TrEMBL record:
EC class of the enzyme, as a word: isomerase
Protein name listed in UniProt: Delta(3)-Delta(2)-enoyl-CoA isomerase
MF-aspect GO terms: delta(3)-delta(2)-enoyl-CoA isomerase activity
Organism the protein comes from: Elaeis guineensis var. tenera
Pathway: Lipid metabolism; fatty acid beta-oxidation
Alphabetic keyword roster: Isomerase, Lipid metabolism
Reaction(s) the record says it catalyses: a (3E)-enoyl-CoA = a 4-saturated (2E)-enoyl-CoA; a (3Z)-enoyl-CoA = a 4-saturated (2E)-enoyl-CoA
UniProt key word Thylakoid: no
Length: 247
C-alpha cells in the first residue's frame, strides 16, 4: 500500500506497487497511519520535511470507483463513494496540520482525489515527460465534495486555471500545470522529479523550524480550507494546540 523511508531529516512516503493507487479504505487507512508515524517520529528532531511519491505510471487515479460501483445499485454505489469521500477528508486535515513542510513528487497521473492528494502538500514537483492532472468529476457526472472545492480555491490562485480544472475537466500536462500555477517545478522524468523533491525537502528541513509553529502558520494561511476539513486552533498565551476531528 505505502512505505516510509527516512533520508536524513526527510521522510519519504511512497505509494507502492505499479497500479493506479486508487484511494480505497485500505490505502486511505495506510496513508493516515503513515502520517501519524511521521508526526510521532518527527517530534524527536528539530527540522523535518515530508515528500510523498508513488511507484508506477500513476501518482493516484482517485477514489476506488470500481469498488463503489460493485455495490449492486446506484444508491448503494453512492453510499460507498460517500464513505470514501468522508474517509479521505481527514487526510487533508492531517496534511494541513503536519508539523513540517510537505512536497508532492507527482511522478505519474494525478486524477480526482489523487489530484487533491497532490495539492494538499505545500509544494508540488511534477515530471515533464508523462502524466497529467485531471479532475474527472464533470466527465463522470459527480459533484465536488465541499472540501474539494475549498482545497482547490485555496491552492489554485488564478480563477481561469480553476475554471479549466473544474468546469472544463481539462487534462493538464506538467508544463501547462506550471504555467497555470498548479505545480511549482517540472523535471524531466520520474527519477529527476524525486531527486529534486528530496533535495527541496532537505533544504527546508535544514532551516530547523519549529514544527508546531510551521503548522500553525499554515493553518492560519489556509483558514477556510482548514475549517472545511474540521481543523481548529485552540491557543493560550504560551502555545497553540492543533486539534483535528476524529472521523
Amino acid at each position: 500500500m505505502c512505505s516510509l523511508d527516512k533520508r536524513g531529516r526527510v521522510f519519504v512516503l511512497t505509494l507502492t506497487g505499479d497500479g493506479e493507487h486508487r484511494l480505497g479504505h485500505d490505502l486511505i487507512a495506510a496513508i493516515r497511519s503513515t502520517l501519524a508515524r511521521v508526526r510521532v517520529e518527527s517530534a524527536a528532531i528539530r527540522g523535518a520535511a515530508l515528500v510523498t511519491a508513488a511507484e508506477g505510471r500513476f501518482f493516484s487515479n482517485g477514489f476506488d470507483l470500481a469498488w463503489a460501483n460493485s455495490a449492486g445499485s446506484p444508491s448503494a454505489a453512492r453510499e460507498r463513494l460517500g464513505s470514501l469521500v468522508a474517509l479521505f477528508r481527514p487526510i487533508v486535515a492531517d496534511m494541513m496540520s503536519l508539523p513540517m513542510p510537505t512536497i508532492a513528487a507527482v511522478t505519474g497521473h494525478a486524477a480526482a482525489a489523487g489530484f487533491m492528494l497532490a495539492i494538499c502538500h505545500d509544494y508540488v514537483a511534477m515530471r515533464g515527460d508523462r502524466g497529467f492532472l485531471y479532475m474527472s468529476e464533470l466527465d463522470i457526472g459527480l459533484p465536488f465534495p465541499p472540501y474539494f472545492m475549498a482545497l482547490m480555491r485555496a491552492k489554485i490562485g488564478d480563477p481561469r486555471a480553476l475554471r479549466d480544472v473544474v468546469l472544463r475537466a481539462a487534462k493538464i500536462p506538467a508544463t501547462e500545470a506550471k504555467e497555470k500555477g498548479l505545480v511549482d517545478w517540472v523535471h524531466g522524468n520520474a527519477a529527476e522529479t524525486m531527486e529534486a523533491a528530496v533535495r527541496m525537502g532537505e533544504e527546508l528541513a535544514a532551516r530547523k523550524w519549529n514544527g508546531s509553529v510551521y503548522a500553525s502558520i499554515r493553518m492560519g494561511t489556509f483558514q477556510k480550507l482548514c475549517s472545511a476539513v474540521g481543523l481548529t486552533e485552540e491557543g493560550d498565551e504560551e502555545k497553540m494546540k492543533i486539534v483535528a476531528p476524529k472521523l
